[in-house]
Design a protein that fits this description.
CATH topology of the largest domain in chain A: TIM Barrel
Number of strands of chain A: 14
Number of domains of chain A: 2
Strand order of the largest sheet of chain A: 7-8-9-10-11-12-13-14
Radius of gyration of chain A: 23 Å
Helix content of chain A: 25-40%
Largest sheet of chain A: 8 strands, parallel, barrel
Strand content of chain A: 15-25%
Oligomer: homotetramer
CATH superfamily of the largest domain in chain A: Aldolase class I
CATH architecture of the largest domain in chain A: Alpha-Beta Barrel
Number of helices of chain A: 11
Structural class of chain A: alpha/beta
CATH class of the largest domain in chain A: Alpha Beta
Largest interface: A-B, 53 and 51 residues
Chain lengths: 338, 338, 338, 338
């Protein structure tokens, strides 16, 4: 951490910073410039300290963080790639792992048809929401426990692992009985009660990026899971909120190489929620793989026109089958396979 | 809702939209333009329908929403201002209600000193966090139940109502025993499990705006509380995330008159979290009152240099006392009082 | 255009809207809903009318635009893809066109070495800045006319067309003498004096997206060029400004399929300015091609460590050669070639 | 400037940074931490150096800027407030200076009526656009020279100084003949050719903030004017682009105290362009004054319903007169007058 003093800071003010650092067990080094003095704070855990501790002291102009705020999720902490293994499927390996299915589980027929399409298209994990966090209280909220039971039935029938969202810390053990991967939705990325409960569960977790959270905040949220001893963490980029209105969100494709440099965790991409429109999904899915993502989370619905939730961004089974063929070519072009 | 068909949409495609509308109990009216056909959907609840239902149909170019997505929070639903009454203090009246105190309850001495400053300065509600949602798992997480007990002691000793945050749906009844107003933090504005629990509790709720949520999403979140029968809802603008790095967030001062036109709910402003720096708080607090806010939520700490959380944005007791004097003048200039 | 009246709008207010529409030569159609009246305005040029004209009338709640604000750049206006031909290179065809070179022309040796690398790597257009718009007046501002002469020399020596930026309407004819494509930088996308001059010149133009402009504003800026009769327009996505600090800008990869659906103009991508860091460029370049871009604009410098401008985002010749090999595979996987 | 080396940077890599610094005339100081080495670069002009120069060197992890990029506009460079004097009106003094008038000059009758309203309401500078930068080429582009002549007539008749926009470097001397203050619009804040020409003119300049530019970029743009010797610079905050759709832009009210701390230049606020709707203008105008702005730029039109440009955000003469009365009270409450 670097503390920049004001132009005319007094020796007492500079000493105040040094003493505060000592009281926290940090070393210090002074740079006396022509215009101002800069104090460097040295220690292995300055990334976890708040800059406010120093910014509030008299005579301080600014405090800049050098160490990153996240620790356990960083590649500096663990240089080699992490791989999360789910029923023999390795997420973070050379294989591109495609997870697909409907946004919400609606009924048995819909889910089984979707699972058929997903399996035939070559996806290896089935997605489907039983608990749905909806913007309006007047919208369909999901089948809840009945939805979980339908997912479990599809899992058995199609011999395919299942990923589904959990929205409340107190549902973690329930949902763990039915699902192979527990998804944290974008709006819950900083629901720390939920993260702590998931960290304790040791179940694989898919951590979606908050749609207005920085990469650093996202990896710090992953630290909540890792700090509780759960290292089965998969990151999922799903678009950020920007000023551009032509898509629902803007997929932050740059975050893919940034994460690959900064973190050891596997990373997948959800093109459906970013785009908000089925016609845009194929281009974004291909871009994600070309940029180095380890997998995709794609919405597929047997009949999008009748979907209760997010029909516009769902692919039909035939569109999905066509996309999978195209994705195999792109995966191969970057040395991977589906 | 307005459905715009593509340039060469067929009569069958147009009819598909009309039939879908009928199946949902909506009326329709066709506008056959020179270039394209537009279908207007008529009905009193189209604001609660997803645009996707129509956007996904063949031949549709775009769907625009005319009705707002929120209902119970809207001024169209209830034209006169709502007033939330807490121990005789009326939030949403001519009085500007100032809530002040430390970000986190740290210990008895700190809280009592803060309460003294808050009371002497003329604030009428004490704030203080017992459950702290923190970005990093390695940061101080709050005193939890012990913090609530300290707040209750301060409430009694200083005869001042208390507002504190609740972060988990399952803590609502516990926190309700100690606090007069339950605060929903920015990161939980779309934690619908929490909103539903608070809606059922009937306790006054302070609903902070999600730092990346639109005004419409914020009022739709208020609908969750109102739909469960809790009409003791206070909105709190606290800054939105933008590209500007010189402040922690950018206070959306325009949202104040927008909310006053669109909603009947009382609205207060938190200048401390928006600015992130104590030196900026007075200017923003004055702006909020001049723009029509019904109150303020301000961080005050007896010794910001030693604060465990957010020291940089906390006012000292003497700074707070000076600000309150200035705020009284601004309040008077817009026909209100503190 | 759709005019939504307020809940209790009077017949006189509704009639005011109708009369205003008639005075502008528009047809109208009324939708009398249960709650409110909606007036649809019909005519072929409503996309070019300001919504304010109606929003300001008494009794009006809101005005929504159905027609897009851009016209000549739209695919509705011209359904088939436009191809811009520069010295036999077809931009917007099956070939992915790579333009590469240094951010700024610094001296003859630097430019010739860069041109060698660009040519050997397989790029077919040389880029290089002679006029540099710099954020600070104390930064290097470019070699100006001397830079143009160096570019012309490289063009001749390496038999490669040249693209360079023009920053002032009065320089258009000068720069046209030396360059094959005139680039409009991100900060000038809405410099309408410059756009009008370029529109008149009939020279091929590379129109970079303003880093905070929407896709609709970008295509409307293209309309300035097209309206003057210059249809040699190439769009260039180069990243938008968001809250994410880990990259210089966030590449809006979703804009690629959006543009391909909305416009007939060819579109290339600049991964260098979006990323701001050479190590991120390859991933983003591959993503752009996989998503359907028609080309790339990449910064290459013979010695990035000594670059006067933007060294951090420049590739070395060997990195560029390696990337070109990888890009050929990705291009092939989506049915194209470099 | 602070250069953070990678965890395992070699002594050669660290020495490379030191040598580069020396070659630029900078001093260095090394901080050898437990995990990594940090090199502080010392010198009085590091704020004007690009961080890329060091970020590109081998072994470097990150480069952080301590010094601000702007210099002449900073309060460190000139601690006391600057006051810009226009025909005896002092902008940046205790007086709140209100500039008002129509967005565009349309004809003589409109301008004279507007000037009457502006003068009677108590504004002391008349605004009006002759050159209009419009998003679409099909919109009204302003009366140009004829508009300037009408402004000059109003200036004489009402004995009131005039502010108007200049959009092209080559128009500076023409517009200077007619106007007392030359306005740089938001889209031209980084039109460096225009800034340089205005810097040379020595005429007072009103520099609007680019709607997506940071405060630091804005003050760096002011440096372009100041560096050419023109210190008659007035800043104008007019709202930034964010994700919020309910207003045209989001007024960054926090920038007011930030600028007052960082810069000596006077600062006014344009509530009309931020809000985009006349009904929101009064609240935002009051907030701006309460937050410490030195003046306002407000759109007033004798008949907004017939305005050719931006009618929705224009006040009528009677609304303007009422607002001015309210603003006087707010100004007084913060120790100023109108």
């Amino acid at each position: 951490m670097i503390v920049e003093m004001r132009k005319n800071a007094t020796p007492e003010e500079i000493n105040g910073v040094v003493q505060k650092a000592k009281s926290l067990g940090l070393g210090t080094q002074l740079n006396v410039g022509t215009d101002k003095t800069v104090v460097a704070l040295l220690g292995s855990n300055t990334g976890q300290l708040s800059t406010d501790i120093f910014a509030v002291l008299p005579g301080v102009e600014n405090v800049a963080r050098i160490m990153k705020p996240y620790k356990l999720a960083s590649r500096e902490f663990k240089p080699q790639d992490s791989v999360v293994s789910v029923s023999g499927i390795e997420i973070g390996s050379k294989q591109i792992v495609v997870m697909a299915g409907p946004c919400a589980v609606e009924n048995e027929e819909q889910l089984m048809k979707a699972a058929t399409a997903v399996k035939e298209g070559g996806a290896c994990i089935l997605r489907g929401g039983a608990f749905k966090p909806r913007t309006s209280p007047f919208s369909f909220q999901g089948l809840e426990k009945a939805g979980l039971e339908l997912l479990a039935r599809a899992r058995e029938q199609f011999n395919i692992p299942v990923v589904t969202e959990v929205v409340d810390a107190h549902d973690v053990s329930l949902v763990s009985k039915y699902a192979d991967i527990l998804q944290v939705g974008s709006r819950n990325m900083q629901n720390f009660a939920l993260l702590t409960a998931l960290g304790k569960s040791k179940h694989p977790v898919l951590l979606k990026r908050g749609f207005s959270c920085t990469v650093a905040e996202w990896l710090t949220a992953a630290d909540y899971l890792l700090a509780e001893g759960n290292n089965q963490v998969i990151l999922c980029e799903r678009g950020i909120r920007t000023f551009e209105p032509s898509t629902r969100f803007s997929l932050d494709v740059c975050s893919i190489p940034v994460i690959k440099r900064s973190s050891h965790l596997p990373l997948i991409v959800d093109p459906s929620h970013a785009a908000g429109h089925y016609a845009l999904v194929p281009a974004i899915a291909k871009a994600a793989i070309a940029a180095g993502a380890d997998g995709l989370l794609i919405e597929v619905h047997p009949n999008p026109k009748e979907a209760l939730v997010d029909g516009l961004q769902s692919l039909t089974p035939s569109d999905f089958a066509r996309l999978m063929k195209e994705l195999r070519l792109v995966a191969k072009s970057v040395g991977r396979y589906i």
